[in-house]
Amino acid sequence: MIGGAFALTMVASFFDMCFVLRWNLIIGVPDIIWVLCSSTAMGTLIFAFMIMPPGVLFAKLTPAHVEATVYAFTSSITAAVYPLSKFLGVFINLTFFGVTTADLAHLYRLYVVQIIAGGIPLVYIFLIPTWKQVAVVVDRLK
Fold it and tell me: Do the beta carbons of residue 19 and residue 31 sit within 8 Å?
């Protein structure tokens, strides 16, 4: 699911870039239909796919009697990462591209960076344990 979420993020970012470059009009797709395939409409779905699997994994790995503490900790980390990623995006924009509301000429470049950055986690997604590996750890904790 997490790999699918990253792939979906890359696809949605590509649709955003196509929208900014107005490629949708070249192939004859109206803006409203195109936006339904972009990150604007897919954002909540992508967020859920990225949050739910780690939450389930942490719930399975957490020893008894500390579930609330571990869940609160992981939820806090997750809640902190999302806004920090937005600040990182602003930093990249200000440092390398300088896109502003007055000058959106290079906005598509930010989407290219977003597409590439969305693929980076796919390189190390194999580090996520399988259900069989989780079961071994859970059995050891009992």
Answer: yes
Ranges of the chain with pLDDT below 50: none
Range of the domain at 133: 2-141
Instruction: Give me the number of domains the chain comprises.
Output: 1
**What is the share, in percent, of the chain residues with pLDDT greater than 70?**
100
pLDDT at 107: 93
> Which of 128, 115, 96 is CA-nearest to residue 21?
115
Q: How many CA atoms lie within 13 A of 75 on its CB side?
A: 7
Cα separations (Å) of 13 from 1, 125, 134, 139?
A: 18, 20, 32, 41
